[in-house]
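Lecture 7, part 2: worked example. A protein chain together with 2-acetamido-2-deoxy-beta-D-glucopyranose.
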Amino acid sequence: MEGGILLKFLLFTILVFVAIGHTNGQLRKDFYKSSCPQAEQIVQNITWKRVASNSTLPAKLLRMHFHDCFVRGCDGSVLIDSTANNSAEKAAIPNLSLGGFDVIDEIKTALENTCQGVVSCADILTLAARDSVSFQFKKPMWEVVTGRRDGRISKSSEALSEIPSPFFNFTSLKQSFANKSFTVHDLVVLSGGHTIGVGHCNLFSNRLYNFTGKGDSDPSLNSTYVTFLKTKCQSLSDNTTTVEMDPGSSLTFDNNYFSVLKQQKGLFQSDAALLTNQGAKNIVDEMLIAGKFFTEFSQSMKRMGAIGVLTGSNGEIRKKCNVVN
Ligand code: HEM
Ligand SMILES: *[C@@H]1O[C@H](CO)[C@@H](O)[C@H](O)[C@H]1NC(C)=O
Ligand SMILES: *[C@@H]1O[C@H](CO)[C@@H](O)[C@H](O)[C@H]1NC(C)=O
Ligand SMILES: *[C@@H]1O[C@H](CO)[C@@H](O)[C@H](O)[C@H]1NC(C)=O
Ligand SMILES: *[C@@H]1O[C@H](CO)[C@@H](O)[C@H](O)[C@H]1NC(C)=O
Ligand SMILES: *[C@@H]1O[C@H](CO)[C@@H](O)[C@H](O)[C@H]1NC(C)=O
Ligand SMILES: *[C@@H]1O[C@H](CO)[C@@H](O)[C@H](O)[C@H]1NC(C)=O
Ligand SMILES: *[C@@H]1O[C@H](CO)[C@@H](O)[C@H](O)[C@H]1NC(C)=O
Ligand SMILES: *[C@@H]1O[C@H](CO)[C@@H](O)[C@H](O)[C@H]1NC(C)=O
Ligand SMILES: CC(=O)N[C@H]1CO[C@H](CO)[C@@H](O)[C@@H]1O
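Predicted complex, written out as structure tokens:
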């Protein structure tokens, strides 16, 4: 009797595990271990090779990954080209300066040559973003679990509504992140991504020339820095010049962004907004300790990489990253 119940229980447990294994393909470490053992090494090799000859790429790939994950989840939808009847995410204004698509294409080509139809573009982007930032350290800076599948939909209208604007105040930033179940802690920590890369003048020059419509500058922006920025961005309409977001170390991934913020030199209103809320401000202070920032950034990135992912039999493995199959 007893043995019969135990056996039934064991069988039931096994069935449940088998069912979970089949239906809910969660992301996991080294998903391609048996299907494409060299996948992650190939991504790292090509990414490192490209970053070695172009140090602006980590910023491009990190931002592209953020944009991918915030619109329809990390499903590679940011990589899809517009077609005659669809305006894709790439065509949205916030995407104007996205770059690094050629790196993803080179990796995809190499992976298709090694193990055809196995590795998703969504995973390639997630790994390449991590590896590009990690090149400087010669070791992976955060864990990436894999098994994402590619989406088939990409809409510019969704990029416009889901990607936070550089003109957002704290309330709107918080709401935009809460929309993805992200906390104020994630918001502050991930904003640290602005420790690398550049921003275009027209996205902040209102803070220099006409903040309240009286030809004034933003009082929350360091006045010494305003003078400097005016030499870079000479008019309100300049949409071609770029400025480093972390002046002096915009090619180095570190926690200097937070020191910059504290000196009231955050480039965008959305950066400066992190000091307008006491809770957020306290987190900015915590991030002034480098070790703390690296640990927290690594954890928030892992969570960002899991937003709305397609797994198991959902989505597809795109043959080319810029077009759906
Ligand atoms: C908190 C809300 C955020 C806002 C409002 C925002 C806004 C922006 C804007 C306006 C730019 C400049 C684009 C240009 O002029 O070319 C930019 C650049 C960048 N962002 Fe963000 N961003 C946010 C969060 C993030 C997050 C979470 C990450 C990644 C973890 C990130 C990574 C980057 C990087 C690396 C660049 C530099 C890109 C380059 O050099 O081309 N941003 N961001
Ligand atoms: C990656 O690069 C290393 C060092 O250059 C090389 O030894 C290795 O064979 C490469 N692996 C793959 C899978 O490309
Ligand atoms: C887009 O338009 C083409 C013809 O211009 C048509 O063949 C195709 O089915 C359309 N695709 C969708 C998704 O509507
Ligand atoms: C580096 O990469 C960026 C982004 O793809 C590109 O715009 C730029 O032209 C590249 N620079 C060089 C020197 O190749
Ligand atoms: C923040 O921006 C939103 C949208 O523009 C606005 O409705 C709200 O009043 C602003 N909040 C503060 C505290 O300024
Ligand atoms: C939150 O998400 C909804 C739908 O997904 C979207 O319409 C709305 O614009 C988002 N709000 C913000 C602040 O991003
Ligand atoms: C500054 O803003 C005010 C009010 O919006 C506008 O009337 C004025 O033309 C602007 N000045 C410049 C130089 O754009
Ligand atoms: C920059 O501004 C000019 C003039 O207003 C406009 O024609 C052009 O499309 C803009 N370029 C970008 C990249 O926004
Ligand atoms: C503004 O910038 C100057 C020069 O970089 C710096 O010495 C000063 O401390 C900054 N002001 C504030 C309020 O942080
Ligand atoms: C990289 C990219 O696709 N950029 C596009 C951004 O949007 C403009 C239109 O608003 C397109 O012309 C760019 O090609």
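The chain has a mean pLDDT of 93. Residues 23 and 270 are 40 Å apart (CA to CA). Keep this in mind for problem set question 3.
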